[in-house]
């Protein structure tokens, strides 16, 4: 399990282990906003709620935080599925506009593709190869990445990860 860390203004800034969150609560560096329902940490003579969401006691300035462009993050964004045929086997990365035609390596030009589709598309655009994309590639925000692609789906986090 992991804990969501909020800044003092309740904006999500990171995720940490529950062990780290517990120590931060114990040291009064953060306050526990939400605990994991029914889960407790037991010592010899006490039981403590396990923190699911914690909030910093002091506001910290966090510089703009983007999502790092990496193979794993492209796979996560595309749900580990080929954007041409939908398979989840033998995946690679494809440049929508090929590099030989000036296509950049960025969020809006990279998609997950199986090796067969990647080879079939070759040095063409999806339109030229008659291979439409399942979804248009996009750059996820940090909040969107935490909410949708981090792999942690805790009910306790939902109120703090909404975009509204």
Counting DSSP E segments of at least 2 residues, the number of strands comes to 6
Mean pLDDT: 90
In spatial order, strands of the major sheet run 2-1-4-3
How large is the count of helical segments?
A: 4
Q: Major sheet: size, sense and barrel closure? A: 4 strands, mixed
Strand residues, percent: 25-35%
Kindly, what is the distance between the CA atoms of the first and last residues, rounded to a whole number of angstroms? 26 Å
Sheet/helix structural class: alpha+beta
Number of domains: 2
Q: What is the global morphology?
A: elongated
Helix fraction by DSSP (H/I, runs of at least 4): 10-25%
The SSE order reads EEHEEHEEHH
The radius of gyration over CA amounts to: 21 Å
Poorly predicted runs:
none
Which key features would you list for this structure?
164 residues, alpha+beta, DNA Binding (I), subunit A, 4-stranded mixed sheet, 4 helices, 27% strand, elongated
What does this structure look like?
With 164 residues, the chain is of the alpha+beta class. It folds into two domains: 2-64 and 142-160, no CATH class; 71-121, DNA Binding (I), subunit A (Orthogonal Bundle), CATH 1.10.30. 19% of the residues lie in helices and 27% in strands. It has four helices and six strands. It has helices at residues 18-26, 71-77, 115-121, 142-149; strands spanning 2-6, 12-17, 30-42, 47-56, 91-95, 110-114. A hairpin with a 4-residue loop joins strand 3 (30-42) and strand 4. The protein starts with a strand and ends in a 15-residue tail after the last helix. The mean pLDDT is 90.
């Amino acid at each position: 399990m992991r804990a969501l860390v909020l800044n003092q203004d309740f904006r999500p800034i990171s995720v940490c282990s529950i062990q780290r969150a517990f120590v931060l609560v114990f040291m009064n560096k953060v306050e526990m906003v939400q605990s994991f329902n029914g889960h407790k940490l037991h010592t010899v003579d006490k039981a403590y709620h396990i923190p699911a969401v914690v909030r910093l006691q002091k506001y910290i300035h966090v510089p703009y935080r983007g999502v790092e462009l990496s193979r794993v993050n492209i796979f996560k964004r595309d749900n580990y599925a080929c954007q041409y045929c939908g398979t989840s086997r033998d995946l690679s990365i494809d440049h929508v506009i090929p590099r030989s035609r000036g296509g950049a390596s960025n969020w809006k030009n990279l998609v997950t593709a199986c090796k067969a589709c990647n080879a079939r598309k070759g040095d063409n655009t999806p339109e030229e190869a008659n291979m439409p994309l399942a979804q248009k590639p996009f750059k996820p925000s940090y909040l969107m990445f935490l909410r949708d692609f981090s792999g942690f789906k805790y009910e306790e986090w939902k109120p703090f990860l909404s975009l509204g």
